[in-house]
Input
Amino acid sequence: MTVDFSGVRRNDPCPCGSGKKFKRCCFQKQLIAEQTERETISLDKFINADQNAYLWFKGIRQIVNRRDWKLLYEAFDEGSSVKDRFPNVESFIEVARESSDNAPLGGEVELRRFRLLGDSIWIMAARGLEDRRRPSAEFEVVGARKSDAGYLITDFERVSVAKTEGAAEDPKFADFASVKLAYEAAKGTEWEKPVIARWDAESQQMLNPDGTPVLVEEPTEAAPDEDAPEETVEA
Output
């Protein structure tokens, strides 16, 4: 049976017939369904095959800031571990809507380092480094594989590092299980090491091998989606 939710207010009885208020019953599921079904901006507005790792990171962050979880799901690589974790878009939207911190590179993150491995990149970011109230900082690595559409997310993993005298030391990439597996898979694989720019955390910019800044073109900022549903729920 198809249930019509149009015009239903949050304190109205839920049309599904449960006897509960709409906000206590199908409200969340309906919001997820609306975001899944509505049209979104194309993914190529934010990521493309010509981007370096830094511009790709900026594009993903723009999607996160829009809270367009359906579009971010389109940036997940088919057949990857992240798709195993979220086999459909509804499962990801439900988790991301609880908190943007649950999404790859979501929430308030600070970019730390890049690592290039064959046709893949690994990005390390951190949360809570400057928050004196937190006894530890959370570090995240996000893996992405090159495709015709640009880099697509394959993995994301997090570790917590205790602070000493208010500071936390960055972990090594090899401290993350997903990166360690990628290292093992890459052993014995022949590939040409490219000359690439590196991210300098102190100056907060990309530097060429000779130390000069890389001139980059910022991705186009998309207009906010005025039709996006309200995401706050009354207690």
